[in-house]
TrEMBL record:
It comes from Streptomyces guryensis. PANTHER family: SERINE PROTEASE INHIBITOR RV3364C (PTHR36222). The chain crosses the membrane at residues 83-104. InterPro entries: Mycobact_SerProt_Inhib_Rv3364c, Roadblock/LAMTOR2_dom. Keywords: Membrane, Transmembrane, Transmembrane helix. Residues 9-100 form the Roadblock/LAMTOR2 domain. The lineage of its organism: Bacteria, Bacillati, Actinomycetota, Actinomycetes, Kitasatosporales. This is Roadblock/LC7 domain-containing protein. It holds the Pfam family Robl_LC7.
Amino acid sequence: MIQQRANFDWMLKDLADGVPGIEMIVVLSADGLRIARYGGDPDAADRVAAACAGLQSLAGAVAHEIPGSDGRMKLVIIEINGGYFYLMAAGANAYLAVLSDVVAEPGLMSNRMRDLVVRIGAHLTSPPRRNGQTV
């Protein structure tokens, strides 16, 4: 597990170095626990991870209303004053979240995030938990 987190560091740094304007990258479980982060402080990353759990649930609920959809959220982009927020499915029960300033180009960002997920998607997973314990 320690080696896996060390691998996350360079993988997330690679994304940050490849797209100008990234402020924070967070890998999180579906239940909102931070798995890894790059940039920002740990408390902010924990808050982002917790908020993302609700957002991915909401996106999934909306996806069920689209005819022919399997109800799974793939990518959410929110433009906010001063930047963008991206949330992408990144493996079984895991998500990749990025906060960026306005310099970051949304098309480039989503493509680089998708590339990262494809390369390391098997490592970006979080086993299901019951009562706080891994099942």
